[in-house]
Amino acid sequence: MPQGLPHWPYVQAVDEALAGRSVPPGTVRADCHGLEQGLGTYLRLTWDASRTSGRGGIRLHWEERTGWAYALLGLSPADVLFYSVLPTFRTVFATPQAVADVAENLVRRRQLPDVEYRTEWDGAQAVRAAARDFRRVRLGLPPVGRQETGGDGRMVSEIAEGAGVQLTIDTQTDTYEQAIAAVQAAYGLNPTAVARDWPAAAAPTPRPDPADLSGEDLWAGWTDRLLFDTVAAVMPGARAVLRRLVELGGTATFDEVQEHFAGHPTTPIEPKKIGGTLTSIRAVRRRIGPDNRTNLLERDDRRRIYRIEPALLEGLKRAFDLAEARPDLLRQEPVGP
After folding, report:
1. Could you identify which of 87, 130, 216, 280 might form a hypothetical disulfide with 6, taking C-beta atoms 3.0 to 4.6 angstroms apart as the criterion?
2. How many other CB atoms are found less than 10 A from the CB of residue 309?
3. Using CA atoms, how far apart are residues 63 and 37, in angstroms rounded to an integer?
4. Lowest mean per-residue pLDDT among 52-66, 137-151, 293-307, 312-326
5. String of b and e for 102-135 (b: at least 16 CB within 10 Å)?
6. What are the angstrom distances between the C-alpha of 311 and each of 236, 284, 318?
7. Structural domain boundaries in the chain
8. What's the fold here for domain 210-329?
């Protein structure tokens, strides 16, 4: 299937850059997710302990919508010791040379380079267009690239929220029946004949948007928008711990947090893994937050408590209200190996 994948040019470019640095991965896995995960494309690169400095393996994980993440592995590739987004990349399509820089540092020294990469790969737009057409074909619509160029009246809508399918509908060249059938397919339904006379659709209810959040300084440069961006970017487990601390008034002991999540019905976290779960907050703080050394979550090892600055609690409540209304904006768990 490789040549049929829309992101195959990116896969090849990254693989060639890694080979040029003499750090080729032992395993390269490129594919697309199923309909239930939006037909998004992904890439996984794995180096087992025999290809690294010897202390364990490395995995780089790229998702079309969220970009690059990395994992530190044990001696077995199935033993994931640590997983996090790659804060060194500020674009989803990092250049292959940038990926090779990071991979070389991880493979040879098991650490990230102290530099940020902001340049986007020059083939990114072509891959995005190919991915768009790939999803259209899978859902029964012709590729946009094969349609005749429309006039000024063309309207193209991109449905690209959360983990749902990204689907382009061209209201000038796609028929109404084709569009309805494609949407039904995107929802996993069997396309059915569409009646000619549909009732008038109700006016859409405006959805809350992060852009509407206040930019007022709540404390030390933290604003409602920065708090929401942090809540949205951290891993689900870390998000759940933050929410629990807000519910408890901003302070809780280590034991209280561990006991609460040990048997949690939706977000169970083993007591010994709470600390590792919260590393997501530190990783996100490197790229989101005011330009100072303040932290959203403070840990007092002597008193064995977690603490959130009281001045931020109301802002966090607003952030979680928006997160509940817009789950499509929240980061989800990575797909397993």
Report:
1. 130
2. 18
3. 11
4. 137-151
5. bbbbbbeeeeeeeeebeebbebbeebbebbbbbb
6. 24, 20, 13
7. 2-109, 125-144+154-186, 210-329
8. Arc Repressor Mutant, subunit A (1.10.10)
Q: Is the pLDDT at 195 greater than 50, yes or no?
A: no
CB contact at 8 A, 279 and 70 = no
* Other CB atoms within 10 Å distance of the CB of residue 206: 7
Provide CB contacts within 8 A for 190, sequence distance 6+: 184
Residue 287 to residues 267, 313, 322, 329: CA-CA distances in angstroms? 25, 21, 21, 17
Long-range Cβ contacts of 197-202 (<8 Å, 24+ apart): none
In which residue are the tokens 């509940």 written? Answer: 324
User: Tokens 């408890």 map to which residue?
Assistant: 248
Residues linked to residue 91 through DSSP beta bridges, in sequence order: none
pLDDT tens track for 197-234: 444 545 556 778 888 898 899 999 999 999 999 999 99
| pLDDT single digits (tens) 112-154 | 998 999 999 999 999 998 998 888 888 777 777 544 344 443 4
Nearest to 18 by CA among 94, 116, 103: 103
Does the pTM exceed 0.85? Answer: no
Encoded tokens for 206 = 């405006």
